C-alpha cells in the first residue's frame, strides 16, 4: 500500500511537470514587428457577435502577425458576467490589455470619474483623425473633462420591433406603429394560435430592455431622457401607464420565457411559431448568422423617429501589460476597415461616418439612415443612460416585475432607485 | 435463502435510487458520444447510434472559427494548481496534526478550534479582502496565487484529518523515543512520518477532489484565460450562446474525469476522507 | 517537557496559525468593517454609516426572497438527505448482493464538481418549449406516462429553488448514507445480539438499540449539510442563475452580483456578514462542544 501510494505521488509530480512544459511556448525566429501578446476582454459570444469579433481579430493578426491574440471572452449576454470578471481583475491589479465597455455612463461613472483606472485616449483620437470621422453624439458620450476615454466601434439601436414576414403576410398584418395597433395585432395573432410576442428573460436584462422601449414610447425622447437626469419624476403617470402596458404585453408572451435567452426565444420567429420581438439590432447579426431572411422591422410602438442608442467601445486600462499591442488593437477598432468588417457581421452600424456601407444588408442601410435623422436617446440597460449601479437596480426591478407584474411595487422601487442615484 | 416480499421491496427501491443517481451520468456519457447530426434536445435520452467523439474534441480544443476556447488550456492549469496545492497542503496538515495531537501545550486545543472554524466560513466573507491583498502581493490572477489561496484555506481540513489520524497513534511511541533522546523533528521523521501513509492518502485525495472541483476561488482569483481552472472555463463554455449543448456536456464530463478516476481507483481512501470531514461524534 | 522543547512545536504551528489568523479572521473583520461603510463604487469609500446597510438589506425584496429560498432549500435538502441516506444505509446493511456496487454508485456524485452537475442538471431540468416539446426530465416523465409530474422546474417561479435542491440532494445523499452506514456498523454487535435473544424483531432492534446510536451521526450530518446549504453558490451559478423573479437566487449569488456587477461593495459585505452569522449559529455550538470534549482527553 505504501508503495502504491508513493507511485501515485510520483505520477502526480510527473504530470505536473508535463503540464508546465507543455504550456511553455518555443519561439522559432526573432520577430520583426511588434511581438508578445495582447489580451482583449469582451462578452461577444453570440451568433453575429463572435463573427464580428473574429473579423476584427483577422485584421489585427494580418497587420501584426507576431503578436499572440488572447481572446478573453466571458459568456453572458449584455456583458453581465464579463463586467463582474473585469471588475474583479481591475481590483486585483491584473487587468486585460483592452476591455469592452458600453460608451456612456457605464464607462464614465464607473471607470473615468474615480480616476486611476483607464488611460485617456485624446492623443490617439487626434493622430487617427477620429475627432473628424465620428459624429458629435458619439464623441460626447465617450468624453469627460475634455478627454476621450474609449474607442466606440459601433452604434446599436435598442428600440426595434422584429417580426416574421411570412406570418404577417399570411394574416394580412401590417407592422403596428402605436400601442393600440400593437395590441390589435396581438389579439389577431393569438386567435390564430401564433405567439404574438416573444421574450427570453433568462439572463435578467431582457425585460428591462423591452421596458425601456415602452418607456420611450410613452414619454418621447426628451422626457425619457429627463427620467435619468432628474427632470422628470418616476412618479409621472406616464410611467404608470408604461408599466401597465408592459403588463398587457406580458399576457401575450411565450410561457417559457424565463428558460430562454433572447436568441433562444428568437427561435420562435425562425420556426414561424412566434410573430414579434423587441430586441436590439444585434438580432440582425444573429439572423444573418443563422441564415434567417424572412424578417421585417419597425421602430417599437410609438418610437418612430427616435433612435434608442447604445455603443460598444473599448478602453485602455492603466497598468495593462502590453501597451503598444493594446493601442494597435484600438487603432484597428477605430479604422475604416475594422469598423466596416466588424459591423457588417455584428448587425450594427459603424460609429464612424465615413465608412462605405453599400455592401451592408437592407436593415443596416435603413438603420444608418435613421441614425442620421432621428432624435437620439440613450439606452439604460446597455450602459448609456445611467451609472452601473442604477442600471443594475433598474434591471433587477424589471426582472422581478416580469414575473410578479405588480405595477405599484415596481413604480415605488423605480422611484426609490432614482432618488438614491440622483443624489 | 428465503426470498421475502421485504427483500424484493428493498432491492426494488435500491434499484430505483440507483437509476436516479445514474441519470445524470448516463446523459453525460451518452451525449458526449453522439455525432453532431444525432444531437438534438428531443433525442436526449436515446442511445447513440455509433460512438463519436466529435463533441469531446470540440470541447477540448475549442473552435476559433466559432469563437470559443477549448478546455485543454484550463485542464493544464487545473493540474498545475491542484498538484502543488495538494502536496503542500498535506505536508502542512501533517505537521500541524502532529503538533496538535502529540505535543499538547497550553492553548493547543483552543488553537485547533480556531483553525477548525476556518473550514466552515462562507468564503463570501473574505472575497473582497482577498482580492485586495493578492493585488498588493502581485499574486492576483496567477496560478501561484491561487495555489497559495487553496493551501491556506485548506489548512483546517488537512489539519483535522491528520490530527484525528495521529490520535490513533499511541502516545507511548512518542514518549518512548523521547526517552531515547529523539527531539521534535526526529520523532516526526522516524516515527510519525513512516506511519502517515493513510493520513496522506485521505488528505491528498480529499484536497485533490475539492481543489479540482473548486469554482468560487477560481472565478475570483484567476478568471483570466491564461490561468483559469477548468471549472471556470466550463462555466464560461456552458454560458456561451454558440456552444452546442452536447459540447457543453462533453466539457462537463472532461471536467469531472480526474476526480472520478481518483474516486474509482482510490475510493477507499475517499470514503475515509469523508468520514474525517464529518467530524463524527 | 523542558521549556525549550515546548517552543519548537509552537514554532512549527505558528505559520498556520498566522495564516489562518490573517486570511480568515483578519479578512472577516475587514469585510465586517466594509459592511459599515458607504463603499458603493469601484473606488473604496470608507465613510462609516452604522447599520444603514443592514437596514436597507432587510428591506430589499431580492434579499427577502433569498432568505426565503435559503430556508426552503435548507429544510428540503437536509431532511431529504437524512431520510434518503438513512434509508439506503439501512437497506445496504441488510446483506445485499452487489452492496459494493450500490455503495460506490451512491457515493459517486460527491466526486463531481457542483459546476459539472449544475451544467448537467440545467439541461435535465430544462422543461423544453412549445417548438421543442418536452425535453430532459419532463421528456422522461412523458415517456413513462407520468405526464402530470412535468412542470417548469427552475423556470417556474413557484418551484425554482426546489429544482436546485433536488440536484443538491443527488449530490449529497450518498454521503449521508455513508455516514449512517458507518454509524450503524459502529453499534456493538453484542447489543444487537442481546436484543435478538430477548425476543425483539429486526424493527424493534433498530428502533431501540441502533437508532439512539445514530443520534450523534445525525447531529454531525445536520451541521455539515446545513453549512453547505447556507453557502451554496457554484451549483446555483452553473444551473439556474438567479431564476425568474429571483426564485432560485441565494444570498451567496446576490453577494457576488451586487459586489462585482453592481459595485455595491458595502452591501455585498453586509450580505457576507449575515451569511457568516447564519453559519456561525450552526457551527459555533458544535465547535464549543468539540472543544469541551477535547479538554477531557
Features:
heterotrimer, B: mainly alpha, MetI-like fold, 2 domains, two-stranded antiparallel ribbon, C: 297 residues, mainly alpha, 13 helices
Topology:
The complex is a heterotrimer of chains A (423), B (281) and C (297).
Chain A lengths: L1 H22 L12 E7 L6 H15 L3 E7 L6 H13 L5 E5 L2 H8 L9 H7 L1 H4 L2 H6 L1 E2 L2 E2 L2 E2 L1 E4 L2 E5 H6 L8 H13 L3 E3 L8 H24 L7 H14 L11 H9 L3 E5 L3 H8 L5 E5 L6 E5 L1 E4 L7 H12 L1 H11 L2 E2 L11 H12 L1 E4 L9 H17 L2 H15 L2
Parallel strand pairs in A: 1-2, 1-3, 9-10, 12-15
Antiparallel strand pairs in A: 3-13, 4-5, 6-13, 7-12, 7-14, 8-10, 8-11
Helix pairs in contact in A: 2-15, 10-11, 10-17, 11-18, 17-18
Chain B lengths: L4 H29 L20 H8 E2 L4 E2 L2 H31 L5 H10 L9 H10 L6 H24 L4 H9 L4 H12 L1 H16 L3 H6 L8 H10 L5 H34 L3
Antiparallel strand pairs in B: 1-2
Helix pairs in contact in B: 1-12, 2-12, 3-6, 3-9, 3-11, 4-6, 6-9, 9-12, 11-12
Chain C lengths: L2 H33 L16 H8 L1 H32 L6 H9 L6 H11 L3 E2 L3 E2 L1 H8 L17 H25 L3 H9 L4 H12 L1 H17 L2 H6 L11 H11 L3 H31 L2
Antiparallel strand pairs in C: 1-2
Helix pairs in contact in C: 1-13, 3-7, 3-10, 4-7, 5-7, 7-10, 8-9, 10-13, 12-13
Oligomer kind: heterotrimer
Helix content of chain A: 40-55%
The low-pLDDT segments of chain A are 25-29
C-alpha termini separation of chain B: 37 Å
List how many beta strands of chain B DSSP finds. Answer: 2
End-to-end distance of chain A, in Å? Answer: 69 Å
CATH class of the largest domain in chain A: Alpha Beta
Looking at the structure, what is the overall shape of chain A? globular
Q: Roughly what is the average pLDDT of chain B, rounded to an integer? A: 85
The chain-level structural class of chain A is alpha/beta
Looking at the structure, the CATH topology of the largest domain in chain B is: MetI-like fold
Tell me the strand percentage band of chain B.
Answer: under 5%
CATH topology of the largest domain in chain A: D-Maltodextrin-Binding Protein, domain 2
Examine the secondary-structure arrangement and name the CATH architecture of the largest domain in chain B.
Orthogonal Bundle
Largest sheet of chain B: 2 strands, antiparallel
Give me the side-by-side strand order of the main sheet of chain B: 1-2
Number of helical runs of chain A? Answer: 18
- Fraction of residues in helix of chain B: over 70%
Low-confidence stretches of chain B: none
The CATH C-level name of the largest domain in chain B is: Mainly Alpha
From the alpha-carbon coordinates, what is the Rg of chain A to the nearest angstrom? 23 Å
Amino acid at each position: 500500500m505504501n508503495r502504491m501510494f508513493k507511485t501515485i505521488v510520483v505520477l502526480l509530480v510527473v504530470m505536473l511537470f508535463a503540464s508546465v512544459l507543455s504550456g511553455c511556448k518555443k519561439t522559432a525566429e526573432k520577430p520583426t514587428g511588434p511581438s508578445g501578446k495582447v489580451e482583449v476582454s469582451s462578452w461577444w459570444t453570440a451568433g453575429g457577435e463572435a463573427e464580428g469579433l473574429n473579423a476584427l481579430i483577422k485584421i489585427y493578426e494580418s497587420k501584426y502577425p507576431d503578436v499572440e491574440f488572447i481572446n478573453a471572452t466571458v459568456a453572458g449576454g449584455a456583458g453581465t458576467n464579463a463586467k463582474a470578471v473585469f471588475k474583479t481583475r481591475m481590483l486585483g491589479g491584473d487587468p486585460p490589455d483592452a476591455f469592452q465597455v458600453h460608451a456612456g455612463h457605464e464607462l464614465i461613472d464607473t471607470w473615468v470619474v474615480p480616476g486611476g483606472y483607464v488611460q485617456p485616449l485624446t492623443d490617439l483620437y487626434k493622430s487617427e483623425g477620429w475627432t473628424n470621422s465620428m459624429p458629435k453624439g458619439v464623441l460626447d458620450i465617450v468624453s469627460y473633462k475634455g478627454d476621450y476615454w474609449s474607442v466606440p466601434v459601433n452604434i446599436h439601436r435598442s428600440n426595434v420591433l422584429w417580426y416574421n414576414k411570412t406570418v404577417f403576410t399570411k394574416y394580412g398584418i401590417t407592422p403596428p406603429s402605436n400601442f393600440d395597433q400593437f395590441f390589435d395585432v396581438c389579439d389577431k395573432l393569438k386567435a390564430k394560435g401564433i405567439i404574438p410576442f416573444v421574450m427570453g428573460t433568462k439572463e435578467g436584462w431582457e425585460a428591462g430592455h423591452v421596458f425601456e422601449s415602452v418607456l420611450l414610447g410613452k414619454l418621447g425622447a426628451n422626457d425619457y431622457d429627463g427620467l435619468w437626469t432628474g427632470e422628470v419624476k418616476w412618479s409621472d403617470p406616464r410611467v404608470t401607464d408604461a408599466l401597465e402596458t408592459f403588463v398587457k404585453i406580458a399576457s401575450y408572451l411565450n410561457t417559457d420565457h424565463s428558460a430562454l435567452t433572447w436568441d433562444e426565444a428568437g427561435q420562435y420567429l425562425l420556426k414561424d411559431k412566434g410573430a414579434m420581438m423587441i430586441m436590439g439590432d444585434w438580432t440582425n447579426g444573429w439572423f444573418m448568422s443563422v441564415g434567417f431572411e424572412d424578417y421585417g422591422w419597425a421602430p417599437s410602438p410609438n418610437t418612430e423617429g427616435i433612435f434608442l442608442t447604445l455603443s460598444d467601445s473599448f478602453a485602455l486600462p492603466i497598468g495593462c501589460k502590453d501597451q503598444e499591442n493594446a493601442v494597435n488593437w484600438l487603432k484597428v477598432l477605430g479604422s475604416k476597415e475594422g469598423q466596416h468588417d466588424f459591423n457588417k457581421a455584428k448587425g450594427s452600424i459603424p460609429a464612424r461616418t465615413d465608412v462605405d456601407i453599400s455592401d451592408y444588408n437592407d436593415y443596416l442601410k435603413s438603420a444608418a439612415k435613421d441614425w442620421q435623422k432621428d432624435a437620439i436617446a440613450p439606452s439604460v440597460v446597455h450602459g448609456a443612460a445611467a451609472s452601473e449601479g442604477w442600471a443594475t437596480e433598474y434591471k433587477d426591478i424589471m426582472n422581478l416585475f416580469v414575473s410578479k407584474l405588480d405595477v405599484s411595487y415596481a413604480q415605488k422601487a423605480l422611484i426609490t432607485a432614482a432618488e438614491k442615484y440622483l443624489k | 435463502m428465503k426470498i421475502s416480499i421485504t427483500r424484493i421491496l428493498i432491492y426494488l427501491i435500491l434499484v430505483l435510487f440507483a437509476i436516479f443517481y445514474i441519470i445524470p451520468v448516463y446523459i453525460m456519457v451518452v451525449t458526449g458520444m453522439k455525432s453532431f447530426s444525432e444531437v438534438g434536445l428531443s433525442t436526449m435520452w436515446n442511445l447513440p447510434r455509433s460512438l463519436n467523439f466529435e463533441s469531446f474534441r470540440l470541447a477540448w480544443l475549442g473552435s476559433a472559427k466559432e469563437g470559443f476556447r477549448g478546455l485543454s488550456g484550463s485542464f493544464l492549469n487545473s493540474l498545475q494548481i491542484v498538484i502543488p496545492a495538494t502536496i503542500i497542503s498535506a505536508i502542512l496538515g501533517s505537521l500541524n496534526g502532529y503538533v496538535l495531537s502529540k505535543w499538547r501545550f497550553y492553548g493547543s486545543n483552543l488553537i485547533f478550534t480556531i483553525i477548525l472554524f476556518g473550514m466552515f466560513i462562507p468564503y463570501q466573507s473574505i472575497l473582497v479582502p482577498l482580492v485586495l491583498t493578492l493585488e498588493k502581493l502581485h499574486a492576483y490572477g496567477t496560478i501561484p496565487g491561487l495555489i497559495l489561496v487553496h493551501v491556506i484555506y485548506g489548512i483546517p481540513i488537512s489539519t483535522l484529518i491528520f490530527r484525528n489520524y495521529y490520535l490513533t497513534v499511541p502516545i507511548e511511541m512518542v514518549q518512548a523515543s523521547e526517552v531515547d533522546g529523539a527531539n521534535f523533528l526526529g520523532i516526526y521523521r522516524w516515527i510519525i512520518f513512516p506511519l502517515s501513509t493513510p493520513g496522506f492518502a485521505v488528505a491528498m485525495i480529499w484536497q485533490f477532489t475539492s481543489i479540482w472541483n473548486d469554482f468560487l476561488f477560481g472565478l475570483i482569483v484567476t478568471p483570466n484565460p491564461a490561468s483559469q481552472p477548468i471549472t471556470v472555463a466550463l462555466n464560461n463554455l456552458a454560458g456561451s450562446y454558440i456552444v452546442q449543448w452536447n459540447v457543453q456536456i462533453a466539457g462537463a464530463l472532461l471536467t469531472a474525469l480526474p476526480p472520478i478516476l481518483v474516486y474509482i481507483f482510490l475510493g477507499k481512501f475517499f470514503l475515509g476522507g469523508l468520514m474525517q470531514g464529518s467530524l463524527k461524534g | 517537557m523542558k521549556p525549550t522543547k515546548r517552543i519548537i512545536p509552537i514554532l512549527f504551528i505558528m505559520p498556520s496559525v498566522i495564516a489562518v489568523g490573517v486570511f480568515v479572521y483578519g479578512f472577516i473583520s475587514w469585510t465586517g468593517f466594509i459592511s459599515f461603510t458607504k463603499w458603493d463604487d469601484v473606488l473604496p469609500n470608507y465613510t462609516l454609516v452604522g447599520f444603514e446597510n443592514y437596514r436597507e438589506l432587510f428591506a430589499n425584496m431580492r434579499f427577502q426572497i433569498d432568505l426565503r429560498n435559503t430556508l426552503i432549500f435548507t429544510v428540503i435538502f437536509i431532511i431529504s438527505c437524512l431520510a434518503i441516506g438513512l434509508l439506503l444505509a439501512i437497506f445496504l446493511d441488510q446483506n445485499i448482493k452487489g452492496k459494493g456496487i450500490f455503495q460506490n454508485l451512491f457515493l459517486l456524485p460527491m466526486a463531481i464538481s457542483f459546476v459539472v452537475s449544475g451544467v448537467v442538471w440545467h439541461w435535465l431540468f430544462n422543461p423544453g418549449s412549445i417548438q421543442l416539446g418536452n425535453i430532459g426530465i419532463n421528456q422522461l416523465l412523458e415517456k413513462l406516462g407520468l405526464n402530470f409530474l412535468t412542470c417548469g422546474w427552475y423556470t417556474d417561479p413557484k418551484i425554482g429553488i426546489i429544482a436546485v435542491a433536488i440536484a443538491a440532494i443527488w449530490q449529497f445523499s450518498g454521503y449521508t448514507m455513508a455516514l449512517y452506514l458507518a454509524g450503524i456498523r459502529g453499534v456493538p454487535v453484542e447489543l444487537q445480539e442481546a436484543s435478538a435473544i430477548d425476543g425483539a424483531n429486526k424493527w424493534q432492534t433498530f428502533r431501540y438499540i441502533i437508532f439512539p446510536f445514530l443520534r450523534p451521526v445525525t447531529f454531525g450530518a445536520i451541521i455539515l449539510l446545513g453549512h453547505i446549504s447556507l453557502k451554496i453558490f457554484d451549483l446555483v451559478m452553473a444551473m439556474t442563475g438567479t431564476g425568474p423573479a429571483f426564485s432560485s437566487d441565494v444570498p451567496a449569488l446576490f453577494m457576488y452580483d451586487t459586489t462585482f456587477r453592481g459595485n455595491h461593495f458595502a452591501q455585498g459585505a453586509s450580505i457576507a456578514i449575515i451569511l457568516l452569522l447564519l453559519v456561525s449559529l450552526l457551527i459555533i455550538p458544535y465547535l464549543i462542544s468539540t472543544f469541551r470534549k477535547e479538554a477531557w482527553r
